[in-house]
Amino acid sequence: MLCLTLTGSTLEENRRLVEQNRKWISLAELRLDHLNADEQKIASSFPSTVDLPVILTFRRKSDGGACSVSEKARLQTLYETAKGDYAYVDIEEDVRKSDLKFKDPLQEQKVDLERSLRDRGVRIIRSLHDFTCVPADIYGRIAKLASKGDIPKVAVTPKSMIDIISLFRVQAELSQVKDKIIIGMGEFGICTRLLYKKCGSMLTFCSDTQAAPGHLSARTMSELYRADRVDEKTHVFGIIGNPVYHTASPRIHNPGFDAIHYNAIYVPFLVDSVRAFFKLAEMLQIHGFSVTVPHKRNVQPYLGRITREVKQIGACNTVTRIQNMWKGTNTDYYGFLAPIAEEIAQGAIRTALVIGAGGASRAVVWALHNHGIKVTILNRNEERARQLADETMSNYDSLENCNLYSKKFDLVVQTTSVGMDPNLDEDPVSAFAFSGKEIVYELIYQPRETPFFKRATKAGCRVVGGSEMLLEQGKLQFEAFSGYHYPHWIHPEI
Ligand code: ATR
Question: What does residue 61 show for φ and ψ, rounded to 5 degrees?
């Protein structure tokens, strides 16, 4: 179940949020602490106006909320509002039993909130928040919260892959607790939100307003990731990197799986330790994953087999599980070649100038070299260019001399980060002149038109953009992961 956290300041605003998100959500959480004081007074009527099960929550500042009244006043308001038709009421783990007894003008004796909720069939969510870490005794604490038949909720902050493993182990440790809510907040926790069912969590929260650190929108959760449809048979794939959330790969793979009705999800994993991730991959039976900076080299000690390209380039961007071992391939290599394959086959590309000698350049230079193309490498750091040139029998020079190489090559490939944010206005080879006849390849895809790209287009060159390579390498990964061709009718937004 996807639960929309409602943080509007009026009930009307919250009703609008429900309507905007209705097709993706199963329930909503009304956050009393975000409502105006006047609206709080009439919030008991809210559930009957939205036709969805609603969780009532009045969150203190110390638990990440906005409530600043005294604890007594907070609980009194919670008590009054809970008289409405709420399906769940959230009560923090440290609230004492004695503080949940209230005088009511209609009753002779004090009313015990917990008992009255249970009598009315309202489930209590017992919540624990930790914005600093995942507590060491988390399984014991969840079991304790669950002991009275309530729903335990833990919203904690993983700070490493090891913490993520602890959260995914909750289900194995506490399978007897059927209804529970497990949330990893913050940057590391996003994978636990997307794979909430694998943590044994009955629901996950979402919002358009980042109501809590790491929230994704209901639309992204449901339409892009189909997180609410993950089941026992779902194949889990993903991408590891640090940083990782900027990558376009989830927007390539998830719509592809959906289009061919393949029960799979592709999740970004922020990874600080590759070793710990391989443990998680075993636990979750991950079938394959993409690898991005800075792990393209780091994964290699864990691979049982690697292809010639991985060995040559020294980088692996795709890992798949083959016969109980991990196999490393490099689809950047083939993805780069795909848009110019015909020209290579026809012998129209015999010489190439490659600008840059970093990680991306290695895949490009090896791909060209292996196809008999004579390469010249230009780099700011000449020593780095020399090393790659030595390995691939290429020529090399300093980037400063780029004007000497004008109009001499069939193909010119730009592999540096110059032209990307924050160097959006820069061209790494502004003194280089195009003939207009060469094919020009700009590996940068964000932004699509760098100064280098624009200059080559203006000179009349055929210009290949980085998004073509990105998509081609993604399609090859898709085939390696699923065994199916990428659906040709899908055009991912990257
Ligand atoms: P990637 O994996 O994207 O290739 P990288 O391995 O860090 O990233 O390589 C970055 C490339 O961009 C290198 O060729 C780098 O040149 P140096 O080896 O001289 O560092 C090049 N690069 C980055 N910033 C540059 C700049 N301002 N001017 C020229 N080249 C630059």
Answer: -60, -40
